[in-house]
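debug: dumping io for the single-chain case to check the tokenizer round-trip. Nothing else runs in this session.
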Amino acid sequence: MDYDVIIIGGSYAGLSAALTLGRATRKVLVVDGSKPCNKQTPHSHNFLTHDGRTPAQISSIAKAEVLKYPTVEFLDGEVLVAKKIENVFQIELNNGNRFTSRKLLLATGLKDNLPDIKGLKECWAISVIHCPYCHGFEVKDEKIGLFMNGDHAFEMAKNLNLWNKDLTILTNGKSALTLAQTDKLLAKSIKIVEDEIEELEHTDGSLETVKFKNRNELKLKAVYMRPEVDQHINFDQQLGFELTELKTVKIDEQQQTTVKGVYAAGDCTTLFRSLSVITASGTLAAVMINKELIGEDF
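debug: decoded output
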């Protein structure tokens, strides 16, 4: 056996788990492909002692702290294959190298499937944002859009009304809001635009104008949206664990998947993608993994 634990993914959840396991003197390998979903985000917020830092700065500080523990190793690369052979886990990297471990922790994050709208990709995580708790204070009292429809749009508009009174729901086509929802929104002076979006005009990711296919335009400071997500790699098919209907990894209260010995933490398990939450999940997963290893060895 090469390692006690292999962690796939070296962002906040993976690093938090590696720190905990390193302090428990476990032999750990962290494999990371350096493709964080928040790479474009200019500042991270709502994370104690790091409020306002860039995601890269936080990761760099965390990695340096983890590397102080001699039993933890880092490897740059992409895991293409992960499988369970009896009670042993084996991974294979894109360079062909293989490693084995007693336990496996997935901290692989999620892949955001952005609509094919000009300018959206460049604005994502800068001025097209997903969470008011992460970004809401920076755009409070500004003219804001909500790229959403139906029940999701209604619930999000209720939340955003705390931060922004000038709010426009962009349904990008026929509204799926109920009559009661529409009446409630309009009573709160929340506008609804059904025009189809053609382009987000921006400067270096900072949104300026939403342009519609019918040539109408709307000046906005930012747009909230919740894109569809996928797992980065089909480890669920390779290892046989279950996903939820939201396409996140199904875990129990101990961060274990439906396959014994395979744990998961961070964004791949939840759509509540707050740094404090995903960091805590990495710590919990590491404690539960170590507890299982102790039980096997004692």
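debug: round-trip ok. The helical segments are 12-23, 55-66, 120-123, 132-135, 150-160, 179-187, 235-239, 275-297.
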